[in-house]
Amino acid sequence: METTLRRAPAGGHRASAPARRITGLAAGLVALVAMILASFLIGSQPIAPDDIGAGLSAYLGLDSGRDVAPDVVNIAGLRLVRTLLGLLVGAGLGAAGALIQAITRNPVAEPGVLGINAGASFAVALAISLGGVGSPGGQVAFAAVGALAATGIVLLVGHGTGSTADPARLTLVGVAFGAILSGVVKALELLDPAGFTAMLAWESGSFEQRDMGVVAACAPVVIAGLVAACGLSGRLNALALGDDLATALGANLVLVRAAAIVTIAALAGGAAAMAGPIMFVGLMVPHIVRWFTGPDYRWIIAYGIVAGPVLMLAADVVARVAVWPGEMPVGITTSFIGAPVLIWLVRRAKAVAL
């Protein structure tokens, strides 16, 4: 009887874990809906909720039954674009950060730290400099290729001669590689300031001066990456146990890592093409959601797809009103939030289990 009483709480605890995860995910969805509404309603230019609805109807070519001022239509359209960008960029970076931390087993890995954003920026700069590529479709293609190349180079050098990646080596290689590429981009900008005027706003990490063409060109890449990330989530659990144990469980390490690298390139490259190099989101989101999900990557990625947009939309709303009547690039807002989080993670005695 005594043994039964001691075991009962453990069994009940295990049974309640899925319920807690589902409850947490539902709370995240509620927060996401709230931030979507805030993204439509809050901005540097005040506008009534009824006008937002009528303006969206007019922008989308629907009949709202009332005359709407052109300024209201423009504001509603811009906020629709920024909301969609926040959803796609946040989900892409949240999932990409989880994938990078899984395949490297590095708790501070993210697209910016590993030089992936710099690779995307370099590819876009090279396309503008040599080919005059200015269309969103061309930029997202080059950004994805640049992100893929940067990911492969950093992982190849970071692995060295061993079978597993050393976290310190990967971080150092990523920071060094990113610094080199950033220097080259700055040199190209200095050589052709007029040609790179449009890239300056993109490079700061901003949702300003974007339109539905950017969303339409980049959304398929990011959505395909999110589907692939969900498909890989179960295999990442085996990978997190270590190469030897993962192989014993039947995981094909080469195939899983290759698929993860391509997926990371699609997610980080698509996000960079839409908004430029946004830092720290891919670092913060996986760590935050692990407090609720534990080390199960099926739940980490599901939570990340929800929590990433919540963070990005919140940062964008703050960016709109922080320096009113002007606006701050959303990349600066996420850096203000992410830098203290990175310092806190480094100072922790024990990182959250990967």
UniProtKB/TrEMBL annotation:
The species this protein was found in: Propionibacterium ruminifibrarum
Transmembrane segments: 21-42, 80-100, 112-134, 140-158, 170-188, 212-233, 245-268, 274-293, 300-322, 328-346
CDD domains: TM_ABC_iron-siderophores_like
GO molecular function, one term: transmembrane transporter activity
Pfam families xref list: FecCD
UniProtKB keywords: Cell membrane, Membrane, Transmembrane, Transmembrane helix, Transport
Keyword Acetylation: no
Entry similarity comment: Belongs to the binding-protein-dependent transport system permease family. FecCD subfamily.
Superkingdom of the source species: Bacteria
InterPro entries listed in its UniProt record: ABC_BtuC-like, ABC_transptr_permease_BtuC
Alphabetical GO biological process terms: siderophore-iron import into cell
A GO cellular-component term linked to this record: plasma membrane
Membrane topology, from the record: Multi-pass membrane protein
Subcellular localization(s) per the UniProt record: Cell membrane
Name used for this protein in its record: TM_ABC_iron-siderophores_like
KW Hydrolase (keyword) present: no
